[in-house]
Design a protein that fits this description.
InterPro entries: 3-OHacyl-CoA_DH, 3-OHacyl-CoA_DH_NAD-bd, 3HC_DH_C, 6-PGluconate_DH-like_C_sf, 6PGD_dom2, NAD(P)-bd_dom_sf. Keywords: Oxidoreductase. It comes from Clostridium symbiosum. Pathway: Lipid metabolism; butanoate metabolism. Helix 10 crosses helix 11. It is built from 11 helices and 10 strands. The radius of gyration is 19 Å and the shape is globular. The strands form 2 sheets. The protein has an 8-stranded mixed β-sheet with strand order 3-2-1-4-5-6-7-8, with helices on both faces. The N and C termini lie far apart (51 Å). The longest helix has 20 residues. Helices cover 45% and strands 15% of the residues. With 291 residues, the chain is of the alpha/beta class.
């Protein structure tokens, strides 16, 4: 099928950037959120991002105006879903939330609509039955920041049709992303399974006072040649996101080993989520890290 109209559910950082990327590549996009404050922030970020691109000479004004003209923001789910070919869900990684949002959206979408979930960990078979056509629901995982990172993971769950997979692979390429196909469902897919193993051990070393956050990150960067240390990366992606993801997994498994580390819990409880709050494992001022 041919994708023309895209609906992105969620005006947070990921949803907004996915919406911008899709509009840049010629699609008509509606970015939805119930929260008016989130919509205002997304609109502001969008204007500022395009203005910055123009000032840096990376985009001409005509191109920017056309792209912004293809992107609208709304708090109307019916307006968002009606006539859309592809719904990209970018709501919090909480199973109950995803099920509710998809079920409500499915009341208004055409029969041909494909549902793509940007979930970082939760496999789509756990919420595909929230819509009338489960074969059209698949994981479609972008990476943060979505305007920069090239990878998209597409997961072939047992319920997903070949047409859905093929369409999503083509769509990912059309918005200048590199898709990889995960041939079977597994918690965390490929990248986050590897990332989780590293961050879990880094947090354990920090909890046990084996080394400081800075030294743990330095060891990984200099010893494994990673561009960012695992704790720096958690600050960038959001400690709150990591906390919610781990708690959701713990609720599903009941395994004590799946609970967030003491360091994650402490920072989450204090509202220290990383760069977006100015403090996490490190302090930040004007976007720069301070020890």
């Amino acid at each position: 099928m041919k994708i023309k109209n895209v609906a992105v559910l969620g005006c947070g950082t990921m949803g907004n950037q996915i919406a911008i990327q899709s509009a840049l590549c010629g699609y008509r996009v509606t970015n939805y959120d119930l929260n008016q404050d989130m919509i205002r922030k997304a609109e502001t970020f969008t204007r500022d991002w395009f203005t910055s691109r123009i000032k840096k000479g990376k985009m001409d004004e005509e191109e920017a105006v056309k792209a912004q003209g293809r992107l609208v923001f709304t708090d109307s789910l019916e307006k968002t879903a009606a006539g859309t070919d592809l719904v990209i869900e970018a709501v919090p990684d909480i199973l109950a939330v995803k099920r509710q949002v998809l079920s409500e959206t499915d009341q208004y979408t055409p029969e041909h609509t494909i549902y793509a979930s940007n979930s970082s960990y939760i496999v789509s078979s756990l919420f595909a039955d929230s819509v009338k056509r489960p074969e059209k629901v698949a994981n479609f995982h972008f990476f943060n920041p979505a305007l920069v990172m090239q990878l998209v993971e597409i997961v072939r769950g047992p319920h997903v049709s070949d047409e859905t997979v093929d369409t999503l692979m083509e769509f990912a390429a059309s918005i200048n992303k590199t898709p990889v196909l995960v041939k079977k469902e597994i918690y965390g897919f490929v990248v986050n399974r590897i990332f989780s193993a590293i961050t879990k051990e880094a947090c354990y070393l920090l909890d046990q006072d084996v080394a400081s956050a800075e030294d743990i990150d330095t060891a990984v960067k200099k010893g494994l040649n990673h561009p960012l240390g695992p704790l720096e990366l958690l600050d960038m992606t959001g400690i709150d996101l990591e906390y919610h993801v781990l708690m959701e997994h713990y609720r599903m498994t009941g395994e004590f080993a799946d609970k967030p580390s003491a360091a994650i819990v402490e920072h989450f409880a204090k509202g220290e989520y990383g760069r977006k709050t100015g403090k996490g494992f490190y302090r930040y001022e004007d976007g720069s890290r301070r020890l």
